[in-house]
Queue: 4 jobs
Job 1
Amino acid sequence: MAHPPPVLKVNGDYVTGATEASNQRRFPPSPWPLTPPVPSSSSSNHFYLSSLNQTESETISSHLYVRELTMDEESDSYDSGEEKRRGVKHKKVRYCNKYSVAFESDPIFKGWIKASTKGDQYAYCIPCDNHLKLSAGKTDLKRHAEKKKHKDAAKAVQNQRPINNMFNLTVNESKVNEAELRLAAFITEHDLPMTVADHLPQLVNAMCPDSKIAKEIKCARTKVTALINHVTGEENKAKLINHLKENKFSLIVDESTDKGCIKHLCMVARVMVENDVKDCFLGLIPLKDATAESLYNHVVEFFSKHNIPYKENLIGFAADGANSMLGERHSLSSLLKKDIPHLFVMKCICHSFALCASYACLKLPRSLEDLARNIYSYFHCSPKRMGDFEEFQKFVHVKPHKLLHPSQTRWLSLEMVVSRLLEQYEALKLYFTNAVLGDRLTTPEIILERLSHPVTKLYLLFLEYVLPVFNNLNRQMQSESTQVHVLYNSVTAGLKTILGCYIEQGYLNKTDLTKIQFRDPGKFLPLEQIYLGVKVALELRNSTYDMDEVKRFRLCCLDCYIEASSQIFKRFNFDCMTIVKSLNALSPKVVIAKEIPSIIELISSFRTIATDIQAIDTEWRLLGNSLDSMNVNPDMMPQKFWCTVSLTRQSDNSLMFPNLAVFMQTLLSLPHSSATVERIFSAINRMKTKTRNKLSTETITGLLHTKQLIKGACCYDFNSAATCKTTVPPFSLLGAKCNRRDNR
């Protein structure tokens, strides 16, 4: 039986026949014949249809089929009613204008626009280095042209010189560049903020209005930062790295956290430069943690990045006594020794002796340190109290010096604090006696009670004697000049000085230093004969003290001596210091005195440095017999002495000591302390203040390298043309992307 014509539901009505053509347009004919679905016998529709006659059943079946067909087709259409009911939004098609070459001839866009590589719907802005989407065509370009960023960039491009004339500077332009470099050196040398450069060129121009060079200086804070980072700083860094690639050197490291809460690893290279040993700042590396593995990875990465052959050229390493630096099992030094088995490792002498003094002073009463801190805190930030104290200073005829604060990080501060307290001791007693009666506060009472104690002054006099024993060696090892040749003798001399204060001299003279029983009471001097300093002996002789108090005082001083000796033996293993002892051969006094006939031990300790073992030892023996014809003396510095030896020639104009001189000059670069790194951290603290706490590591590194570049000269004597070989290009070619936070 033929099916009835299709019936569609439109606006709530069933439409047939008359709308067949329109239905065909909306629903294209299917290649398969349309047959109504056969309902299941269990379906309710089938039960309902079976109760009707044939005509009604066929009509309703057609209506159901057409309804299902209509719903299926409409669900796939763009304007589906179901999607509208659900609120589905379709993305509108956007139309963009295309780039036209005619834009380039427009007077508004001429010279700064060209076709973009991203497609024909974009334009490329040359000054801004940006791709602009042409949604509204020329309107978008006009809007971009009105922006301040585009105007500034376009102005910079107009002032830029052509690339073919970039490095052909005139005399005047060269002098302008030199003046800008000197301004950068001035800011660096005096630790001034970068913002000074915003007004400094205008100030110079105002003071020198007739100067053509002053008028041409355009050097604000952003350019000054770029000059420091990418010209002067990069110049010094490149020179140093090239020098380390060809010469033996030692590495000195330490880590610290600055005021911006950034932990840095500071690296210093100790190397021979122009016949003189110099400690050169190498780099500053930011750290997240200071584990041995992290430190090692950063150091190796730095050397690998700059192609420095550290496994061949690194001969010495020095750091403080931290476990991550110098631990025996797993530390930076142990990891480096796996790469360089012959590496000479030195624990910082300054740190070691400062700790020895600190532990020794713990055997004395704690009240001494509390007294020094309380006195400083009482006068600190109180002009009235300082003014009143000056009256008492005048009364007892002492100089009006300020009282000092005992610092934990300043190694030599404690000795100066003790000396100042003794200088002002009588004036302090008179002042606090008056303060107790007038102020009625607890602090003056505590201070006066301690000052009036009979043995307080004795302890201060004892410290005034014993602290210089540590500080003199500490001060000597903070020197940048070579001290490795006197290291062993200086340490043993300091130790014997302390031992001689409480151990019998005869026992010390006949016993080897490593076998001295410094804790054995049988080897001690009688308690009354222990040496405590001349001022203590005079004070005990001229004043009356309680005998029990004096005995306790002497016992505390004895404990201080024993603890100091114990700490020195603990930190310096004299049995393993044969290498350090053999370095005495570097001393001009030892060479001239002919104390060492052969340097076999020294050569065997540094076999990787010695090129020809026999030739070096032969030249050493020859040197002892040739000193009369050389202009040398025992008081010469080692580097100057060996420089003279290296320049000595024979009658045929050939070098007399070529192998020995190179070997000894290389050993002069061995480290003796890490005090240089501490000085760099002090310089960083002067740069990165509370108001400049956002200086980046890159800018700090550039400042430190620039300081090193101008070292030995003032900013106004800084010869930038001779020092910086690189021609200074305009700022747009410096490649500097300085954040505003760095321009402080």
Note: Residues 173-231+694-742 form one domain.
Job 2
Amino acid sequence: MAITAVLPSCSIKTTSNFKRHLQNNLPDYMRDYSGAPQPSSDEEAQPSSSTRPVLTRCRTTETMVHSIVTFVVKGFHPLSFVEDEHFINILQVARPGIQMPSSDFLRDVLIPQRSDDAKSELFDLMAKAAHVCLTVDMWSSPTVGLFLGITGHFVVGSHLKSGTLLCHRLQGQQHTPASIGQLFGTVLENFNIQNKVSFVVTDNASRVIDPLCLFPRLHVDGGCENEESGGCDLEVVSVEEMIVDLAPEKLPCFTDALQMVLRDAIDADESIKSLLDKARELLAFCLKSPLAKAVLNEVPKRRPEQPIPHWTDQLKMLLSILNIPEDVLAEQCPIQLSECELVNIQELGELFAHFEEVLERCLSKKSGASSCVIPCVRGLRHTMEGEMDLAENETFLPALRASLESRLAKFEEMECFQMAAALDPRFKLDWCNDEEEVETVKGLLTAKLCEVLPKPPASEAPSRKRPRLFSYMDTDRAEPISVATRILAMYLCTPCLGVESNPFEFWQDRTDKLALLARKYLSIPVSPVCVEKIFSAAGKLFRQERCDYSEKTLDEILTIVCNS
């Protein structure tokens, strides 16, 4: 069938065959449409010296450009990498005839498009959530300055989602609370979550970031300035009663407090500190010895001269030492451990393993981490009350127990974590210590549920007045059961799910108010991992060779990296 076509880039105005026209006059377009291989001519096989933008006319080319942007951005390569001769040659072999975008086009068009797409996708997801929890933190570096990071956490379907709302480098006077509050308000407005934020988790930035500054109180004047003219038909009340506190609850970071418990205990016992230092020296020797290194398991990937500050790395270090055969330790290693020290290392490894299990449950995205806080704290307390004695050490375990009570016991008293544990179908009220606590938590659940349930109009309340014939009956003998009590009783009467089950799947298909509360409290983050991911990416991105990048470009790259 003959097709008449007009292409603005051609001198020929009409043709009887569109395909033949492309083959004869626009071979580049023809290859984009048909995926035909490039002619074998040496001149045409050479990459074009022009760096004009790629013409994304087919799905294959669009996928290739998308992959190039991902490779450059997520690999933290300089944008000029796309103009490297060797990189272009590789792509020419993989996709003959492709025209590479220039670094300017990558910076001005492709990266902003990907950043906007990531923000739009996050915006659409957050629009489906009824409640959003935020993690706000700051990070400073002597080379790049002060960073502010904000991440959002919410439940969509049967999954706990998280996304980066902001990663911005604060300059000049932007580090003041007023400037941070203004920047924070802009973020909430851009994602339309001003009325959805229920909790704000802060740690290092808690001294600078105050939710009362981020969410200022709304003052409503209860009086009328000119009562004589016009009159005021509003009820005059106290101004203090008209102050609406819009600030969400500010929560500390649980995982940071968990790490401080072990640090306090280690710092309080010099013998444990010297034992860990001795173990680190032993591990450093083993990393240098090919014979000893061959028998190690899960060696931390650090240089021997580096300290091992994190207790999870210390756990790997202790387990690695225990896996070294005794003959290797006796013959090859100049650092010898006594039998008592080996026993202490084994018991320390067992103790650290319990803390690692708590950390893994807090970092899991498949289940609500906030619901595990109280059960994990009480599980650790129960573990330390066992027969573990660390070879009759009289300092470490008492210091560990005291630090646990001072740093973690406060989380047991927080209503948000009590609600999260009770609304987790894996635990419900099994974590309560006694019947008194069970009744207290039931009362808390009922009160929170009554706050979100619609109140029936007074006219719908059934009349309890009896006819004169039945006036002898006691009307106060049987009080009616409230709707909140009935809903809560139906939830608690079902058996608990398995510990490894996903609590979000239990609430996924439920649309009642109890499910709404469950999604609100189960989405509370207890770890700053998402914000630390932002700061880690910022540390890789802000380097000497990137000093000419604008703040806009840096923010866009971080948005792509942290939301992909």
Note: Residues 103-127 form the longest helix (25 residues).
Job 3
Amino acid sequence: MVGSEMRNHTVILEFILLGIPHTEGIHNILFAVFLSFYLITLLGNLLILSAIITDARLHTPMYWFLCNLSVVDLGFSSISTPKFLANIWAGSRTISLGGCMCQVFFYHFLGSTECLLYTVMAYDRYAAICHPLRYTVIMNRKVCALLAAGTWFTSSFHATILTSLTFTLPYCRTNEVDYFLCDIFPVVKLACADTYIIETVSFTNIGVVPMACFCLILTSYVRIAISVLKMRSAESRRKAASTCASHLTVVCFFFGPCALLYTQPSLSDVLATPIQIFCNVVTPMLNPIIYTLRNKEVQAAFKRMKGVNVHAYSTCLPPYHYPLCMALGTVTNLKGIQRMECENQTALMYFVLLGIPYPPELHAALFCFFVSIYLLTLLSYLLVLLAVICEPQLHKPMYWFLCHLSVLDIATSTVVVPKLIAGFVEGGGTISFAGCVSQLFFYHFVGCTECFLYTVMAYDRFLAICRPLHYGTLMNRNACLWLAIGTWAGGCLHSAMETALTFRLPYGPANEVRYIFCDIPAVLKLACADTILNEMVTLIDVGLVAMTCVFLLLISYMYIILAVLKIRSAEGRRRAFSTCTSHIIIVMICYIPLTFTYLRPGAQDPLGGVVAVFYTTVTPFLNPVIYTLRNKEMKAAVLRLGGRKA
């Protein structure tokens, strides 16, 4: 029966979201309501983030996790609401297969992250109330960073498993999803294959995560309740209970609907849709309201942001936060205070890049080495670009992405190497403040884009080997264009955030950067302010981007290996593997130094400089060599470009 359905239907490339049932004629009202909720959600969570970042009193573990929760709620509300609003506005309800996959992945990624984050926040309250004397030791900076990173990392793994299992099924029935977003149970109903495994795994996986989290939260609050009841002072009991009230409220709002939705997958639309809307739209809007109404510290931070009680604020706030407040425009009456605190300092106008420590006798040799490497890198990539552009046989998705990789590697070399070479000339190690900002921004912009691009290239190889009959349809021109644009846009957003966080800090008279270029760990050491927020965000952001990309790469190659092993011909297996080896090699060359550098940001050793030289200078030089030596089509195209016969 399944076989006949697959033969009589074409493969689905897009779905139609039927939306909210029984809402005919009230689309304008729905648009206004959902838009209002979404804007209030964005405003509320952004206000909480601004208050915590700008107020030194809130730089504690509890508010660090609240920052993470705000980011999750911003993402969670952005998964379905904008698409729903766009569908009402445009009168179209279609969503591409890739868009549907993204909705399923990010919905379960952020949902699982929120679930784990509530558990970590309960543990934080347990440590604060039950072990107050050891709280700062238990919840130190590293522990907070690792707990936050662990929630994001585990959730990405959870969501990847569910999304992979959902979309490995063939879809050839109707493409109408009887829901207002792509979720597992509505989507698998359209599969023309046995869905018993995916339903069982989803039920087990989604059930185990919330149940485990709920049990841990319950255990934490039982211990907290026992500790609170032992307190003699009524005021102490009241204060201890008040610190937990907001968290308990949002936990109830989260776990109640979650239990109804995923323990009852056959729940009627009359109940399921309102519950889902409550989870996706209302809860992210309520969380910041609950935390501000129930929390005096956050309320006071908002008042200080408005300029209320500025005098009291200025006496408690460290001097290094005054320039930040002025830059953000959150406190308007600090000019006099800022002048008094900073009258003995001049604004930092430039940095000095100390570069590589080397013996004087190697000066000329190193200068010639880096100049040669840089020129050879430019020449080799220009050859690759010319070969792909001039050779019609290479006008394929694989080589389209290789062109983007060539541009990125040229940019990586150009961001770092010319300034490194200038450092061998007397006085060439200085870099202006604006130049340092630009170097840091473009380095992370290009680096993050390259990480995303490697993932897209792995996806391209997955489709070419595992879906050869549909490859031309799935990787059409529009798909290739949007995938490329997405990598650049994602890299730009990531870099803008990292750069803004780094240079919001004040920098004192020390201006010697002990590195070959302006990078986040090296520059942060010169800040005359607390850099814990920056270090945590950098660790989580860079780690999350890298680990998500690595997971997607591993999954792609796992499917590729399984598909290749099913090929009967030894020649067929060899050719399939040969198309992937170049990509695997450059991925390893990229990620090993990246892991070494950003998972140990506080380390200060000469090996860090050597690693930096390798991935900013040598890696861009090696990539085109690897692609041409391992690829017969590229070698033939380069030879034809030189006027020879392949």
Note: Confidence is low (pLDDT under 50) at residues 1-8, 308-345.
Job 4
Amino acid sequence: MSAASSGSESSSEFEHIYNSPQSASWSTDGIESLGSTEQAQILSIIDGIRDSNVSKEIDFPRLVVCGDQSSGKSSVLQAIAGIPFPHSSDQCTRFATEVILKRSSFVGVTVSIKSYNTKETTVFKTKRDLTSVDDLSEVIRKAGDKMERTGAFSKDILQIEISDPTKKPLILVDLPGLIHNGPDEAVVVGMVEDYMKNTRTVILAVVTAGGDPDPQAVLKLAKIHDPEGRRTFGIITKPDKSDGNTNLQRRLIGMAKNLDKNFKFDLGWHVLMNGAANDGEQQLDLEKRAKEEKRFFEAGPWSGVPKGNCCIGPLRQRLSTMLLDHVKQELKGIKGDISAAIARCQKERADMGELHQDLPSKRNFLVETGKKYHKICNQAITGLYTTSRFFGTGFSSNPEDDALYLRGRIKNLNVAFAYTFWKYGHHKEIEDCSLIPQGLIDTDESTDHFDDCRVEPDEITRKYAVVDWVKPVAKKSRGVEIVDGRNPTLVKFLFCEQSQKWETLAYRHLDECSAACRKFLRLVLEAVVPEAREEIRDSLHDWIDRKLERRVADAKREMASIIADCRDCFPIVNNYQYYDEVGIARVKRAGNGSARQTITSLRHTLGSVVGLPTQAELVSGLTEVIGSLDGDAEEVHEDPEDQRCEASLDEMLAYYKTASRRFVDDVVVQVIERKLVAELDETFSAYEAAVMTDEEVANIVQESPYKQQKINELNVRLKSLERAADACRRYSRWYVHPNLGIV
């Protein structure tokens, strides 16, 4: 059945529960022989762990039967377990089958399907007595129809759980047969490897005697996942198929004696007749099988195999000892897994916190959360990062951790803003009056958020600035001033044009700082409110975000006032640096103008005299002197209006230098620091929680029914794990492993 068709059946997992009386016509005596008293005591620990419903976290030791297709795997499983399977149908080999034997207060068989994707168990209760092979075969067929398929195979797992007060715990797994060069080869190999690579799996590698063992895929995979052969046990089936091939038979017998150098396993080999019932036969006669096996191995070439390495009876005894030793070796690791699972469960339970049903409890929770929140925020604002559990040590290579160090982040953003402002903030760069500070050096701080603002200023000559930039505006903006007077609005117009990028740069900086604060506060909230309290965290996030938005709005209003003071008002300055700049410009302009006039007149006079031998050299030298003076080497401005424009230009440039220094400091101090960052720790605190209204407290701390259910589940799971841990400790007190010591 396809995944689509099975969806309506809740195909993730379903379960049929069958109550079978002890007088059933089939039994599990085969499995009973797999358990000694000591083994039962050890495996009962595993059974208890499995009952704790933590199979997703803990891998259990298991015997896994695997081999190539038609190698006789299912027959081996039947012989070991004494449980009948539908031998004539290949349905059972299309998916993994787990036989789980467990102790229980009732007698019954549970057949279930465990989803490969969800790993969840849902119960589909359909009860009836299971008293014959036909009953079990029919159940398995119906279970197979419910599975989601990948091609002809399914990754879902068929589980047959046998419950009985007298049963000894055990897990046996039958896997689909490995196929060669088929469309589903990769699917089957993946399923088999999932089990083989688990170090708690004992690999029962089934090899048919009907062919050369070298190309059989099961041995190749066993070599990959158990290269030293410590947990692989080889089983040779159908030994009668080797009759007529002396070389093959001789090699297989050597393998059965564990003498083959290519496939020598610590656990050894075993030979087993395929004594499963013929097609159509209703039940498995274990006694008949044992007699047939005995006759086969008492005569012929296979009689040379040691008696302990052939027949089903000795196989069960070997598996019993093998499983016991394997469980002993893995028990220490299982105990470690249990301890880790307990730690995870305790942390998850601690993260859930206590249920807050009444108003005082809810308010107290917010007060305690506010204390933690305020402490971390205050440390970040002052740059004293003492809470190492939150800030770490500063050596993290994760760039996301930079957001934790808020003070450092804001200072770095201020550096990036100032650098971008000084280098790209002015509209015109005049050749003899650069507005880029001489000491400005490149910064390694990111300025990516200013990408569209990083446009180089227009570079112009002073003559162009006076004649083509300032003069047209001066003419256009003439007022009631006398003919030779200067219009005071001209400096304002020039300054506004020169500072047109300031507003964009400033707001871009504010947005970046706001984002840094928002990200930081989110990280703080995640640290002080556990993930399990997601509803409360989200509610607090909304509360804090509203507080932050109000601070951002205040910062924007302050920014608007600062920008308005610069651009909307007439230039007002009482800064001595401004007067120094203007005075220097006037002296330079007056001195250069006087020198130009004198030298220019002399050049013109000499240039009109003909016949002097040094005339050309003198004219050239005077021209060079003029060119060495500051400014353009052309004629000095004789037009009074040009002179007034040049004076206005000098005043604007001097004012720009003064105002730009003030603007950068105002943005950093008044906007970013005072309105945004300062008192950011007051966005939430113990005081805030204490003065909240009852309605606000109730809206923030809302306990969901899911949380109550989750806490109950964690409590049950924790108790089960602790019981399993107690069982391991009890075992440790009386069992000492010869190699591992007390486990």
Note: The first helix runs from residue 3 to 6.
